[in-house]
């Protein structure tokens, strides 16, 4: 098996086999746009970080899952934004993060309101950032109502990535999600509000696709409201040229003070979410690695370093070392080449019995490698291996790590086991005797045998070994 450790100094020609080349199902110009974007490329999220700045607090619609005291639920898990920033403060914060986080490749504006309704602040922030940080990608999240009015500026500013939250294409369903919108100086309610919002979302999507902007569609899965409907949303946005579809679970809690929270509307279970995602397969390509990050998130997806970069902690003078950022990107290209070689080894098992499946939880810090200790893992990446190959299913967040202050926490161990109870194997860089025994007793095979190896080839090898060890008709 190819190991990630010995990075060759020269590497092979990128066009022949390295990951600088686009994947087979993607045009090179599209790959050039997404290859460093951690949300638009599942592969990139192993290597690159995003940050949001909360500069746009105003919104032009009301969603039943939103309370404006909290982050925009379009793109964020509910939780108060630590700081609302002016465009100048936001730009300063971006520079400070870029100076110390070389992985930073994308700046997104995703709430706590609507980035396009609050356009002056969004634009002022982006203008200030690109002046000093030309290698950053710009990204916007919007409810879509104001989108058609801003497409020309979006294109002119090289904003290649726009997310539209589309929860319905049927206004009857929309009326259950949006009590009102504010459009052309008027407040509209009920069916009329939902119809106008729907028309504007579709128009904005069409206009962006026509101009070559990559559109991701986020849909909030609301059980009993739009769960059965989201497959129609998926098919419609595919037809219109959306690049990705991200079906994300409603987060609902009375403590958040939202209409849904206060009226008992629950969010979906992990199984219900997976069922809808699986039903959508075959249409618009699904994003499965979303972490529902905050509107002021900083860092790799799944980590939030926002508290390291609050205004009071920003240095007086900020200097970005561009050679360090460039060196990081070169290093990633080398890692990608190696990972691409490794993926070539991931072949479907020719003798796999139909239906034989291996579900694997992986502890990783990034780089596509099994490199995290079990006790330090903040999340697991879940993969499924079958006769067709190895597929990424999604990330599961660990609320409290097993190892805290050097000691193992019994109560968190049982929660972690419950989190991955459907997995056959757990792969990590290191695991102690006690958690190992408890995982084994729960029917999950823990292993650190593949420590510091690439994820997918390790799972493929494990699957092949299991297939060889088990009689075909077992
Ligand atoms: Fe931010 Fe959204 Fe841009 Fe990413 S997040 S504006 S596309 S840079 Fe990403 Fe976060 Fe999921 Fe959003 S993981 S919530 S999809
Ligand atoms: Fe809240 Fe975002 Fe909906 Fe506006 S678009 S109401 S900020 S969730």
From TrEMBL:
<comment type="pathway">
    <text>Cofactor biosynthesis; Fe-Mo cofactor biosynthesis.</text>
</comment>
<keyword id="KW-0479">Metal-binding</keyword>
<dbReference type="InterPro" id="IPR005980">
    <property type="entry name" value="Nase_CF_NifB"/>
</dbReference>
<comment type="function">
    <text>Involved in the biosynthesis of the iron-molybdenum cofactor (FeMo-co or M-cluster) found in the dinitrogenase enzyme of the nitrogenase complex in nitrogen-fixing microorganisms. NifB catalyzes the crucial step of radical SAM-dependent carbide insertion that occurs concomitant with the insertion of a 9th sulfur and the rearrangement/coupling of two [4Fe-4S] clusters into a [8Fe-9S-C] cluster, the precursor to the M-cluster.</text>
</comment>
<keyword id="KW-0411">Iron-sulfur</keyword>
<dbReference type="InterPro" id="IPR034165">
    <property type="entry name" value="NifB_C"/>
</dbReference>
<dbReference type="InterPro" id="IPR003731">
    <property type="entry name" value="Di-Nase_FeMo-co_biosynth"/>
</dbReference>
<dbReference type="InterPro" id="IPR013785">
    <property type="entry name" value="Aldolase_TIM"/>
</dbReference>
<dbReference type="GO" id="GO:0016829">
    <property type="term" value="F:lyase activity"/>
</dbReference>
<dbReference type="InterPro" id="IPR058240">
    <property type="entry name" value="rSAM_sf"/>
</dbReference>
<protein>
    <recommendedName>
        <fullName>FeMo cofactor biosynthesis protein NifB</fullName>
    </recommendedName>
</protein>
<feature type="domain" description="Radical SAM core">
    <location>
        <begin position="45"/>
        <end position="296"/>
    </location>
</feature>
<dbReference type="Pfam" id="PF02579">
    <property type="entry name" value="Nitro_FeMo-Co"/>
</dbReference>
<dbReference type="GO" id="GO:0051539">
    <property type="term" value="F:4 iron, 4 sulfur cluster binding"/>
</dbReference>
<keyword id="KW-0004">4Fe-4S</keyword>
<dbReference type="InterPro" id="IPR000385">
    <property type="entry name" value="MoaA_NifB_PqqE_Fe-S-bd_CS"/>
</dbReference>
<keyword id="KW-0949">S-adenosyl-L-methionine</keyword>
<comment type="similarity">
    <text>Belongs to the radical SAM superfamily. NifB family.</text>
</comment>
<dbReference type="Pfam" id="PF04055">
    <property type="entry name" value="Radical_SAM"/>
</dbReference>
<keyword id="KW-0456">Lyase</keyword>
<dbReference type="InterPro" id="IPR036105">
    <property type="entry name" value="DiNase_FeMo-co_biosyn_sf"/>
</dbReference>
<dbReference type="GO" id="GO:0046872">
    <property type="term" value="F:metal ion binding"/>
</dbReference>
<keyword id="KW-0535">Nitrogen fixation</keyword>
<keyword id="KW-0408">Iron</keyword>
<dbReference type="InterPro" id="IPR007197">
    <property type="entry name" value="rSAM"/>
</dbReference>
């Amino acid at each position: 098996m190819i190991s990630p450790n010995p990075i060759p100094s020269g590497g092979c020609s990128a066009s022949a086999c390295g990951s600088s080349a686009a994947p087979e199902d993607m045009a090179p110009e599209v790959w050039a746009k997404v290859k460093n974007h951690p949300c638009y490329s599942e592969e990139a999220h192993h290597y690159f970080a995003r940050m949001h700045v909360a500069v746009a607090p105003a919104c032009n619609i009301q969603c039943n899952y939103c309370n404006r005291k909290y982050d925009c639920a379009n793109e964020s898990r509910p939780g108060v934004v630590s700081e609302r920033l002016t465009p100048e403060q936001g730009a300063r914060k971006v520079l400070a993060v870029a100076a110390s986080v070389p992985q930073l490749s994308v700046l997104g504006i995703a709430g706590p309101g609507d980035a396009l309704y609050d356009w002056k602040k969004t634009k002022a922030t982006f203008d200030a950032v690109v002046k000093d940080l030309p290698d950053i990608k710009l990204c916007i999240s919007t409810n879509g109502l104001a989108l058609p009015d801003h497409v020309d500026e979006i294109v002119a500013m090289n904003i290649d990535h726009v997310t539209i939250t589309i929860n319905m294409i049927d206004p009857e369903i929309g009326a259950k999600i949006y009590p009102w919108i504010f459009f052309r100086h008027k407040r509209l309610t009920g069916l009329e509000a939902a119809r106008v919002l729907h028309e504007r979302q579709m128009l904005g999507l069409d206009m962006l696709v026509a101009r070559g902007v990559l559109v991701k569609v986020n849909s909030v899965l609301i059980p009993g409201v739009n769960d059965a409907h989201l497959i129609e949303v998926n098919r419609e946005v595919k037809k219109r040229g959306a690049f990705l579809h991200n079906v994300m679970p409603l987060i609902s809690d009375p403590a958040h003070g939202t209409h849904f929270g206060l009226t008992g509307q629950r969010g979906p279970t992990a199984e219900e979410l997976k069922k809808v995602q699986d039903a959508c397969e075959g249409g618009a390509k699904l994003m499965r690695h979303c972490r529902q990050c905050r509107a002021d998130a900083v860092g790799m997806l799944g980590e939030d370093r926002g508290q390291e970069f609050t205004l009071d902690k920003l240095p007086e003078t900020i200097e970005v070392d561009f050679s360090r950022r460039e060196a990081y990107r070169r290093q990633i290209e080398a890692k990608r080449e190696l990972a691409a070689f490794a993926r070539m080894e991931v072949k479907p098992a020719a003798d796999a019995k139909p239906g034989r499946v291996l579900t694997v939880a992986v502890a990783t810090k990034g780089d596509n490698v099994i490199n995290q200790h079990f006790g330090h893992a903040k999340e697991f990446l879940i993969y499924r291996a079958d006769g067709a190959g190895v597929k990424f299913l999604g990330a599961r967040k660990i609320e409290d790590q097993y190892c805290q202050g050097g000691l193992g926490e019994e109560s968190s161990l049982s929660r972690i086991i419950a989190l991955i109870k459907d997995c056959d194997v757990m792969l990590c860089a290191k695991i102690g005797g006690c958690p190992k025994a408890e995982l084994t007793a729960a029917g999950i095979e823990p292993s650190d045998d593949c420590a510091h190896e690439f994820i997918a080839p390790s799972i493929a090898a494990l699957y092949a070994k299991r297939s060889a060890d088990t009689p075909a008709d077992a």
